[in-house]
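[Meeting: bench + compute handoff]

Bench side (C.D.) handed over the final construct sequence. Compute side (W.E.) agreed to return the predicted structure before the next meeting so the bench team could plan truncations. Sequence as handed over:
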Amino acid sequence: MTTIPFEARRFQSTAAYYTRYRVPYPDRLIERVAEQAGLSAGERVLDLGCGPGQLGIAFARLTKAAVIGLDPEPEMLEAAEADAAAAGVDIAFVRGSSYDLDSHVWPLKMTVMGRSFHWMDRSATLKALDEITVADGCVVLFGDRHISSTPDWRQAVNTLAETFAPERNADRERRKRPDWIEHESILLRSPFNDLERISVVRQRRLGLDDIVGRAFSTSVTSPQALGERVPAFAAELRGTLLKLSPKGVFSEVVEIGGLIARRS
C-alpha cells in the first residue's frame, strides 16, 4: 500500500491562502454530520491535521464541542488560533501529527480530518484512533469533489504544477497510481468500518485571484515550494486563465462531503 512520506512542514507558507481560497465547509454540512454522529455539547472532538482550523472552529461554534486541533505546521496553528479568537471559540491547538496520537487526547467522541488523511499512514492512524475513541465515537473524513469547472481552469493549474514543481507534483501523482488504495477501502479494513456519506453540492463563482490563491494554498504550488519562481508561476497562470476566459470569470460545481466511519 502506498504511503506518502511524512514531511512536517509540507504546508509551510500556505496558511495565508488556505482559509481564504479553499472550498469552505458549509455550516449545514457540519450540523448534519454532528447530528448524525450524535455529537453533544462538551464532547471531545479532535481536528487532526487541522491546518488553519476550519473544521475545528466550525464544530466548536456550531455544536459547542470541546475541540483540540493538531497540526505539524506552526504557521497553520498561528492562523488557526487567530481565526478561533475571531470566531469567539476556545480551542486547544497543539503542534503534532497523526504520529503523535496517544492518551493525552483521550477520550474522543469524534475525529475529523479535512483533506489530510492521504498524507498519513492511514491504517496506523485508524488503529491509534481506535484506542482513544469512545465506544460510540467515530472518524469523519471531510473533503470536496470536483464535478465541473467552466472554463476548465483546473487543467491549466495542473499543467503548470508539472512544469514549475515536478517533485512536489510527483507526491500528488502517487494517489493516481494503481497501488493507491482509496480511503473507503482503508476504512472498511479498519475498526471504523460502518460508513455513511453526507454531502452538499454547491456552485461557486471564481476570479483570477481566487484561482491563483487556491494554487498557492496547495503543497504542490505553495510559495515555499515555488521559491523564486512564484512571480513567473503567477504570471503564467494568469495569462493562461485569461486565454480561457478573457473576462477572468470562472465557475465550479463541487460536492463537499463528510464520510462518517463508525465501528460496526
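W.E. noted at the follow-up: The mean pLDDT is 94. C.D. will use this when planning the next construct.
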